[in-house]
Every structure is written in C-alpha cells, then in structure tokens.
Amino acid sequence: MSRLGSLVKSKCPNCEKGSVFASRGNILKFKGPVMNKTCPVCEYKFEREPGYFFGAMFISYALTIAQAMSVYFVIWLLGLNLSVDMIMLIITLVLVILLFPNFRASRIIWMYIFSKKKI
Prior knowledge:
Layout: H1 3-8, E1 21-23, E2 34-35, H2 56-78, H3 84-97, H4 99-113
Helix pairs in contact: 2-3, 2-4
C-alpha cells in the first residue's frame, strides 16, 4: 500500500497495517473518535510526548478554513441569493458535520509528517 493510501485509511505511520483509531466517533451520538495509545500490530507509540498533537490543531484549522471557503465558493457558483446569515448557517452546519473527520485527519497528517516507515 502506498504511503498516501495508508494515510487516507488511518493506518499506523510505522508499519502501515495497524489502525490508529479504535473508533471513528459519531457526531449524532456526541461520541468523539477514540485513538489507540499504540499500534495494535507493531506497538508504535502514537503520542510521542505530552503535547505532541498540539501542532495538529494548526492542520485542523487549515482544513476547516479550506472547507469553509469551498462551501462558500459552491454557494457562489450555484448563484444562490442567500442572506449572510443563511450562508453562515450552511457553512457552520457543514463544519460541524466534518468535525470528527477533521480531528482524525489532522492527527494522522501530523503523525505522517514526523515519522518514517520502518521497512
């Protein structure tokens, strides 16, 4: 499997076989994703030090801004004549729906930036 494929499937950055998250989370049940402490296959420790995922917040912020701009661009392309309040409501709803996928993606991307695959 390619490195990008492993990133998209939330696999361990070390062995690319074990899953990083024990559960994906469910926005409707208000349950967030649960991350494994170590890889179930190779025992790679995901949180290398306290505060390791602080930088993932910046990735999450960038993803959120890109998604908000994309939603606005789609509304603009469709030529919808909506009020500013309605546009903000639509953008907010989309961002709430994408909350947990952003959380997972930002942590995975952060780990892949600072790790190399063991052969």
